[in-house]
Give the backbone structure.
Amino acid sequence: MTDKKAIEEALGRRLLVGEMMARNARKFPYTEAMVYGDTRLTYKQFNARINQLAHAFLDLGLKKGSTVAIISFNCNQFLEAYYAVGKIGAVAAPLNVRLHPEELTYIVDHSDAEAFIVGEPFIDLVRGIQKDLPKVKHYISISEKPVEGMLHFESWVAKYSAEEPLVLVDEDDPLFIMYTAGTTGRPKGAVLTHKNEMVMWMLASAFVFAEPNLGDIWNYRAFAAPPVFHLAAFGYCQFMFFIGATVVLPVEVFNPVYIMETIEKEKINTILLVPAMAFFVLNVPDIDKYDTSSLRIWASGAAILPTETRRQIYKHFPNVGIFDLFGQTEMSPLVCALTPSESKGREASVGRALPFIEIRLVDDNDNDVPVGEIGEAIYRGPTVMKEYYKNPEATAEAMKNGWFHSGDLLRQDEEGFFYVVDRKKDMIISGGENIYPAEIEEVLYQHPKILECAVIGAFDEEWGESVKAIVVCKQGEEMSEEEVVEHCKQHLASYKKPKSVDFMDVLPRNPAGKVLKTVLREKYGKSVKY
């Protein structure tokens, strides 16, 4: 299809992330879309910059199916890249800025990225791994000044047309490869489509707009505090763009005082904070001196919100309603939401299933468990990921019998509300980051003094959970806690290293020889506390 009018008509009928932004530019041209420091962009201006970047990508030879890796702190260019990639049918692969260079190298290479957008603080890091990235043909710096060997984002993009690129993208085309921590030591790339994301925010709207006393949500100003390389934060931004609201991004890496100042200065109506962030915000000195009367919605996700944290939020922010959001990347990402009006007496719940999303709780044979009993949550619906990128075995395992198997252990009450009990695969969530013990255990076993080890999540008042390693040394060997932690730092992202280490003579095991992590959790602290 080459006729411009025909392409425009076809795009207009499809559920496409890029088309959503184009519509907003036509519907709300002078509404502020994006605020990042001194940068303030209306929907018309924001969409124009996205289009310029899309044309710039096309000029590099990127096409439908091409992958663009991105590593940066939050900024308007990061979000522009997400949408520009979507407009040409390419695929974004955002990177966790806290990963070890070895981990970044694996993900960029595995994703088949042809272009790599690099925030200024990460230029030296990326230069250090370039030799191991033969598939990457183009590097683009988000930097104040041009960087040798890289295209300069602002001066490069400025040369291109602001017209719609008019690439005929299909709603089932991949949009993102979101890499999640792997249970076997390697991250898996969850492939999400345009339709996955567009339907997700339609379903979320059904929950949010049904809630009373939220005011004029169409004109909300939203503060996205967590990093947008996580789907929780970017999804929050997508929802706000979806309804034509204004997204405010922090210019500082997490700073609780700055957050309070921004709520007051920008008259923020809704904020997204993971529970670990909330803990620090609630401990800002003289917190009640800030004018936060504009705040109406407190969105919490990526980990369970402890009851005491919830109580403190309502104490210091009496005008807000808390939305507890629960899901995972592979589900685009939400599956449940607990609304403010339904939370009384159900504070430990993660809410009910979103419309069009089916949740079953099953045993190891995929048989439904009775109401009130614990089972693994499995999901079906239009927001389930397309696949794990280049990993058909993991895809088949996760999608057994046509349902996505989450690995989360939940129970459901008689009214349909769900409660998280544990994680079947022992995943640790620390400060909103997913951490898999198997990855850390693999590194620990590389140390010549370690005979065996186990990694669990221990309750942490600040971070929700922290990583604890239990180590058994080889006969005649001794180690210090510092030695174990330093070994992990050499091979893993800093946030994955153990916060504490204990030593045992032997690990508890069942008759089959499997380490009894339930026994270790009882000894060293529950992984989740309400």
Remarks:
- The chain has three domains: 4-15+42-169, 194-423, 428-524.
- The mean pLDDT is 92.
